[in-house]
Specification:
60s Ribosomal Protein L30, Chain: A, globular
Length: about 120
């Protein structure tokens, strides 16, 4: 691991406050981040999910585990602070992972969340 360092990878997706939609969007965002950044589970340290207060149907960490993904990963979820005029129904993730020095993280923003960080949105 001497030639690797710890990186942070961001992503966000908008979804309905519905168990099925949250499960589908969590899997969609996770898969997009994994594929775009060529990540393997052994390089991932942890995932921190946050949700806006209007997403209450299911915990995204539970949704990820239910999908069969991230079984051995450390997962955590919290609620975003309520801020005036913020985008509603947003699920965010921060992935801590190891990669070789010089790696450029490909952050993913989907399904309306692209407006949060147009400077970092790319596939």
């Amino acid at each position: 691991m001497e030639d690797k360092r710890l990186f942070g990878l961001r992503g966000a997706i908008c979804c309905k406050n519905d168990v099925i939609d949250i499960e589908r969007r969590v899997a969609q965002l996770f898969d997009a981040l994994i594929v775009a950044n060529s990540l393997v589970d052994t390089d991932i340290v942890s995932l921190v999910f946050s949700v806006t207060s209007d997403l209450t149907a299911i915990n995204p960490a539970a949704a990820l585990r239910k999908s069969g993904r991230g079984a051995d990963l450390a997962l955590f979820c919290c609620t975003e602070p309520q801020v005036e005029n913020s985008l509603p129904k947003v699920l965010r993730v921060l992935i801590h992972y190891y990669a070789v020095y010089g790696t450029i993280s490909k952050h993913i923003y989907l399904n309306g969340a692209e407006i949060l960080r147009p400077d970092r949105s790319s596939l």
